[in-house]
Design goal:
Layout lengths: L1 E7 L12 E7 L8 E9 L4 H4 L18 E11 L9 E7 L3 E4 L1 H4 L2 E2 L16 H13 L7 E4 L5 H12 L3 E6 L2 H10 L4 E4 L5 H6 L5 E6 L3 H7 L3 E9 L19 H5 L3 E4 L6 H17 L6 E5 L4 H9 L6 E5 L3
Parallel strand pairs: 8-9, 8-11, 9-10, 11-12, 12-13, 14-15
Antiparallel strand pairs: 1-2, 3-4, 3-6, 3-15, 4-5, 5-7
The site of NADP nicotinamide-adenine-dinucleotide phosphate has 27 residues, from α3 and α4.
Length: 335
């Protein structure tokens, strides 16, 4: 029996992943003491992982060493267990490897047993997954949104953003989404019930936001870069910004360039807080009952963008990072 896995051979330039990764073969790994082996069913493509494969050492976690198996969120069933509390056959999610089989230790990987009573198990990457936890934590715990407020979300048609739009809407906010292209903007308004969608590729974002009466009370920022500069002068006084991600800069050398409109933080008395979902992992199960209720009521929907086959993982990864996705990008690696 063979295990195929993606190995990081070099730091990618831009979105050229084919030159940076190679698909390797090995024998199926065995679980060491305290470990489990998982037969992966699905891999989650997450924008934040783009930072782990750069050489930068000042990120929120150390870079993945060259020659390593690529790490990412996996969902599947345990086939071997030497870890207390986990049994063969358990449906689990964790930070594992882009591979047919992942081998992990529970504590280091955030290994979590999943509810089997879900019509589509991919929802553990969707409405019940890390992107949903991130959206909830950023909006409720960090930006502290209140009913009736105007909430702005960037990368709004992606996995995290589309869930953030719906959570803000469900909590009684007026929601504005920023996304790239008319199809995504239509999706935001027609399928997610967003009040206003701005196409940053063709609209003047700053001018569109200037028309918003009362300004933006809370901004869930997935992007950073020029969009953040367009947002800052249009925040309401005492507005809050939950800085979730900087996808506009992950593949750029000038990733450390700050916001050009830094002055507006003082002028508008803004609060900006970065947050990182692993800091909320213990709390994630507190968010789940509400997310599950909304999922069952049809108030939290996840659009999946699925690629089949481990061998096509790099296509899926690139789709997500270049914005060719609507919703959550997953790879079905069942064989
Ligand atoms: N803080 C945390 O703990 C945490 C956890 C999860 C995710 N995140 C962050 O959340 C963000 C979204 O991640 P995701 O995994 O859910 O991916 P995603 O939103 O499903 O996909 C990434 C999206 O980013 C947008 N994008 C790419 N380049 C852009 C650019 N230069 N300017 C504006 N938008 C751009 C694309 O949409 P368009 O077509 O609209 O450009 C693309 O669909 C990332 O910044 C990620 O790091 C943070």
């Amino acid at each position: 029996m063979t295990n195929r896995f993606w190995r990081l051979d070099a730091h990618p330039h831009g979105n050229d992943f084919a030159s940076a990764f190679s698909l390797q073969n090995e024998d199926v790994p065995t679980a060491g003491p305290g470990q489990v082996v998982i037969k992966n069913d699905y891999l989650s493509m997450d924008a934040g992982t783009r930072m782990w494969i750069t050489p930068r050492t000042d990120g929120y976690q150390p870079p993945l060493p060259l020659g390593s198996k690529m790490v990412g969120l996996c969902l599947g069933r345990i086939t071997q267990s030497q870890a207390e509390g986990f049994a063969v056959g358990d449906l689990v999610r964790c930070f594992g490897q882009w591979a047919d089989y992942a081998v992990v230790s529970p504590a280091e990987s955030g290994l979590m047993k999943l509810d089997e009573d879900v019509a589509d198990v991919r929802q553990h990457f969707g409405a019940l997954g890390m992107n949903a936890w991130t959206a909830w934590a950023g909006l409720v715990e960090v930006a502290k949104i209140q009913p009736g407020e105007t909430v702005l979300i960037s990368a709004a048609a992606g996995a995290t953003g589309s869930l953030a739009c719906q959570i803000a809407r469900n909590l009684g906010c007026k929601v504005i989404g920023i996304a790239g292209g008319p199809d995504k903007c239509r999706f935001l308004v027609e399928e997610l019930g967003v009040d206003l969608a701005i196409d940053y590729k063709s609209d003047d974002v700053e001018a569109e936001l200037a028309k918003v009466e009362g300004g933006i009370n809370a901004y869930f920022d997935n992007v950073g870069g020029p969009i953040l500069d367009a947002v800052l002068p249009n925040m309401a006084h005492y507005g809050r910004i939950a800085l979730c991600g900087l996808v506009a800069t992950y593949d750029k050398d000038n990733a450390t360039a700050g916001p050009a409109r830094f002055d507006q933080i003082l002028m508008r008395r803004l609060t900006i807080s970065g947050f990182f979902i692993p800091d909320f992992l213990e709390r994630g199960t507190d968010f789940l009952p509400q997310l599950r209720k909304w999922l069952d009521e049809g108030k939290l929907v996840m659009h999946f963008d699925e690629t089949k086959g481990l061998e096509h993982t790099l296509d899926a990864y690139s789709r997500m990072l270049t914005g060719r996705n609507i919703g959550k990008v997953v790879v079905d690696v069942r064989t």
